[in-house]
Amino acid sequence: MLYKVMGRDVFKDFVKSLISNYEFIGPKRKDKAVHDFVPIKDISELDINYKRTTIPPAKKILFPPDEKLVAYEVNEKIKVRPVVESSEKVLFGINAWDINGMNFLDRFFVTDFVDENYLERRKKLIVIGMDSEPTETNFSPSMDSEYAKDGFDLYITELKDRYFIRINTARGDEILKKYSVTENALVKDFKDYNNYMDNYRKKFKLDVNIKDFYDNFELIYDDDEFWEKVAKNCYSCGSCNLACPTCFCFNVKDDIELNLKDGNKTREWDSCMLPEYGLVAGGHNFRPDKENRLKQRYRCKLKTFLDKFGRYACVGCGRCIEVCLAKINIADNINSIKKEVSV
Ligand code: SF4
Ligand code: SF4
Questions:
Q1: What is the mean pLDDT of the segment spanning 59-81?
Q2: Which of 45, 165, 241, 305 has its CA 20 to 30 A from that of 290?
Q3: Is the peptide bond before 56 cis (omega within 30 degrees of 0)?
Q4: What share of the chain is helix, strand, coil (3-state, %, to 5)?
Q5: Is the pTM of this model over 0.85?
Q6: Which secondary structure element, helix H or strand E, spans residue 189, and what is its range?
């Protein structure tokens, strides 16, 4: 990691150069409360001071909701052509917990199988991180995700009169040299950065007791009364999965042309909260009840990947809390499992 500082006077020109020279994706206001990561053509469209986290998350750039994987042609012989669509892009202004979400997906998409489509896009994505204001539903510090150690090229922190920049890749270093003027960070810059981080962490108000969850979950796992209470109002709509930066489940379907010869295999996001998720050939459903689906979601997020990758499949972004019409709150539920077990 290299550390540099950039003056406020050159920051704007740096961003403008990136917009002119790259396909540039950044946060733009969609309506009063929501921002989205979209292509930016002019700096006036960019709003890096977004408070509410973007819905859907930036994972859509690496793992689109709907994507062609394979094109095929059925004649005497079957011709199959993989479809990998990717181009170099700058993703600007993504915050630490969403970078950590992408880091989780990086791991998922190369373990057990290697997903070329995801990998190609990730390699070509120049990631420039910046902190954003946490919402009241955000519990990233509890999940160790309010700070990103890797998964980006540059991470820019806005101090009072300058920007503190962490350079994580040679590509990031080259971009900075080519499009801006920076100086090496000195002791005073590090001190100001540390003060900034101390104050930044104080902005996260929601605290989740995740440390005891791993064991306590097993004790509560068969408590039907508890899960009935938690999932009582769930509509099984799947919004919590779609909004989540680490959910990766997908379906693959065939789109066949009317000539019955040409077709594509397409994947689209799936959701473990939908009733048909556990439905298999023959009509058996492994998880027909919403209580079981919700508890399985918590197991996947908060236990399974801790065993498999040594990290949670949850970065504490709070999006699933914000989008849930039934007000099902993963943070409250983690804490209430602790309370239940402690009574
Ligand atoms: S927990 Fe909420 S968002 Fe998720 S499926 Fe149930 S109602 Fe929908
Ligand atoms: S489970 Fe909820 S809080 Fe955790 S990363 Fe997914 S959307 Fe964010």
A1: 93
A2: 305
A3: yes
A4: 40, 20, 40
A5: yes
A6: helix 187-202
